[in-house]
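so my prof wants the structure for this chain in the C-alpha cells format not the other one, which i didnt know existed until like an hour ago. anyway here's the sequence
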Amino acid sequence: MSLAILLVPALALAVGLVPVWLLRGPDRDRGARSEVVRNASIAYALRMAALGPLFVWGAGGDLWPALVAAASLALGILLLYRLRLPLLVFLHGALARDRSITVHAFIARQHGNDARVRRLAAGLTLCALVGLLVGEALGLAAFLAPLVPAVPAALALLLLALLPAIVAGHSGVMHSAQLQLGLAYFGLFGAAAALLYLHLELRTPLPPHGALAIALAAVTAAVMLVYRRSKYVDTAPIAGGRALSRALSRCSKILNPCVSLLGVLTIVLALMALYAAPPGASALPAQTRVPAVGLLALGLLPLLYPLVDVGLWQNLAAVAADLGARELAPGRRAAALRAVFRMGAAETALAWLLLYLLGAIAVTALGAPDVQASVAALVAADDAVNGVALALLLVCALALAASTMSALVSAALCTLRCDLAPAALTPAKAGTGLGLAAAAAFVVAAGPLALGFGSDAFLAWMFAFTCAQLAAAPLALGPLLGAGRVRPGWALAVLGGGVASGVGAIAAYFVSGLETWLWAAIPACLGTGCALYAVGRGAARDGG
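here's what i got, hopefully its the right format
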C-alpha cells in the first residue's frame, strides 16, 4: 500500500482542524451562523457507528431496515421542529439568564424542578455519551484494521477529537463539523464513482439488488445536487480577516464544486452501468432478515432520539441565538428556522440512504459483504483505481468519525459543566478526565471484548448506552405533547425503569443468544418508561 493513500485522509483531517485553531481563545464560544449549525447537525447525524449496519444491509440487499431508519430519522427531526415552541421558550430563557440549556434542565423544570431528576438524567446522559464515543472509536478501529495498527490509530483519533471542544468550545466543534461534512460528501461520492468505475472496467456480475441500488444512487445524488446547488460547506470567513481564515474560505469555495463534480461523475457512471444491466422486477426485496421487533427499534430510535440528544439541543440553542441576533422580521426568522429543520431532515435521510447504497455498490464491484472486507479487498488489489477508491473511502470514514466524536465530547462537557459540576470544572480539566475515561473504556472493549464493526455484539454495546439516554424521552415528550407532568419520584422511576428494562433485554440476549432480545432493548426501554409515565400521570390526577 502506498503511503500517499494515507496522506490524503490525513490532510483532510488536518484541514478540518483549522477552524479550531482560528476559534481558540477565551471568547471561543462566539456562536455560529445558522448555515454552519445546520451542516454541523447533519454531520453529527452521519455517525460512524451507523456506517457498519447500513453498509451490511446494502451489501446484502436488505433495503427495508435502511428505509425505515432513514425515514424515521427525518421524521424525528421534523417532530423536534413541530414541538419547537416550548423548547425555544426554554432556550431563550436559559440563554438570557445564563442557565443550563440541556434537556436535563428542561425535564427537571417540567417535573417538579427537582435537582435529583436533573442529576440522574444528566448522569445517565454522560454515561451514554462516553459509551457512544467509545463505540465510534471501536467502529473506526475495525475500519482501519486492514490498513494500520487499528487500536493505536483509533485511540489517537479519539484523543484528537477532544481538541475542538476543549480548545475552541462548541463554536469550534460546529465549524469543524460542517467542514467535515463537505469532506465526507467528497469521499462518499468519490468512493462511489471509483467503485462504479471498477465495476464497469472489470465487468463484475451484478447481484439481484445491484442494478436497483445503482439506480437509487444516481437518483439520490441527483436530488442532493439539485437542492444543495454546490453549497455543501459555508464559505464565510471565520474570525475576521486573518490570512488563514481567508485561505480556509478559498479552500471551501474549491471544495464545493469538487463535491458536485464527483456527484455528477457518480450519476454518469451509474447510468452507464444501468445501460449495461437495467434493474428488473426481482431486484426489489420482498422481505428482510431483520425481525419485526428490529424494524420497530429502527423506527423508534431515530424518531425519539433527537428529543433527548444534548448535541442537537446545543445546536438548536446556537440557531436560536444566531437568528435572534440578526435584524430579521419575525416571519423571516420563522422561515429561516423552518428551512434549517426541513433541509436537515431531508439531507440526513438521503445521506443515510447513500451510505446504504455505497455498500451495495461495493459488493457489486468487489464482492465484499461488509465494510472491513471492502477495505481489505481495496488494500489487496494495489493498483491506481483501487488506491483512489480506498483513499476516498478513508476520507469519508475519518470525516464521519471526527465530526461525531467531537460533537459527543462537546455534549459531554456541556452536561458536566451545566448539570453536574458547574463550578468545579474548567474545560481542560473536564476534557482531560473525559478523555482518560473514554480511552480506558476503549482499550478494554477493543481488547478482550473484540467487538466487530456492525456485529451483534457491537450493536449490543451501542444499544445499551443509547438506552441510558433514551430513557428520558417520555419525560421530555409528555409535556411537549400536553400530556401533563409527573411528580419527581415518578420521574426518577421512569428514568430508572427505562434503563433497567433496556439493559435487561441486552443481558437476556447475551444469556440466551437470541437476536430478538437485542432488538427488543429499544422498545423495552421506551415501553417501560411510557408505562411508568402513564401510571405517574394517573397518580398525579388522583393526588397520590
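also thought this was worth mentioning. The radius of gyration is 23 Å.
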